[in-house]
User: Which sequence fits this backbone?
């Protein structure tokens, strides 16, 4: 059997299109199509029904899918077992985190760790999406979430508090003349993000105007510092940027926490264990900087 066709089948089944599957596989649209057609020819069945809205599994495809997922999981377990034989404090660690956390929380920790362990290299993936640990898209992940739903090993460090912040100048100028429920004030908007819109509606300022659509929290930070309006930001920003102030009468949202996560099989890898222990200890030492007041 041509095993190269199995990842292509799973990618199309997961994403529903050749293009998305090709992006996920790091291949071309034509390559994924050839692999799917080769697998269908080998099995003598049609695995997908092609439609204007994408690729949909046929009955044969739905029958194959759980077996293909099981085969994929078995291979991943084998890869993890081999990685677990590593006993040296050297090699590569793939770390994922969101850009705000990495820029302001992780940079000094990574610099100190690199000085202590010169034979360990860090490959840092910055994204507001979440890389899958169970599918080995990353080795270690630092996440700010309310709960973890992957089958992984995790350490919950401390609350990742979120609050409503603006520059002291903006608060002094605008808050005294604001109308009821925040009318006359401005929010810096993230766009159509239901969770954040809900926070705004349940805040003391639901009538404030939401301006702009800016999905990057770091840009919100700098706009708020420049006096552009109110922003939902991590509570630690006030420690780093004293020109920012939490809006009077507001409280911190502490539903999320900082987690450090890794695959259970990677606990046996010495460089991973060293890194996770060091990272957790270093972040806990800085706990007071990140919780906010």
Assistant:
């Amino acid at each position: 059997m041509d095993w190269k066709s199995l990842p292509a089948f799973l990618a199309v089944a997961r994403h529903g299109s050749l293009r998305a599957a090709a992006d996920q596989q790091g291949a071309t649209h034509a390559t994924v199509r050839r692999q799917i057609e080769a697998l269908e020819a080998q099995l003598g069945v049609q695995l997908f029904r092609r439609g204007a809205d994408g690729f949909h599994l046929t009955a044969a495809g739905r029958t194959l899918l759980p077996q293909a997922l099981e085969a994929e999981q078995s291979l991943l377990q084998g890869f993890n077992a081999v990685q677990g034989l590593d006993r040296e404090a050297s090699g590569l660690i793939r770390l994922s985190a969101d850009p705000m956390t990495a820029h302001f929380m992780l940079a000094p920790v990574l610099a100190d760790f690199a000085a202590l362990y010169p034979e360990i290299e860090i490959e840092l993936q910055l994204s507001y999406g979440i890389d899958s640990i169970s599918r080995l898209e990353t080795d270690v992940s630092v996440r700010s979430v309310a709960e973890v739903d992957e089958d992984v090993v995790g350490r919950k460090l401390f609350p990742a508090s979120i609050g409503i912040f603006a520059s002291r100048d903006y608060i002094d100028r605008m808050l005294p003349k604001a109308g009821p429920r925040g009318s006359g004030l401005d929010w810096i908007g993230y766009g159509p993000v239901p969770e954040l819109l809900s926070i705004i509606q349940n805040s003391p300022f639901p009538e404030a105007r939401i301006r702009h659509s800016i999905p990057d929290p770091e840009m919100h930070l700098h706009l708020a510092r420049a006096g552009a309006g109110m922003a939902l930001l991590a509570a630690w920003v006030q420690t780093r940027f004293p020109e920012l102030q939490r809006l009077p009468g507001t409280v911190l949202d502490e539903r999320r926490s900082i987690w450090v996560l890794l695959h259970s099989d990677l606990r046996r890898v010495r460089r991973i264990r060293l890194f996770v222990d060091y990272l957790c200890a270093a972040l806990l030492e800085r706990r007071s900087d990140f919780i906010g007041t």
About this structure: Residues 121 and 173 are 49 Å apart (CA to CA).
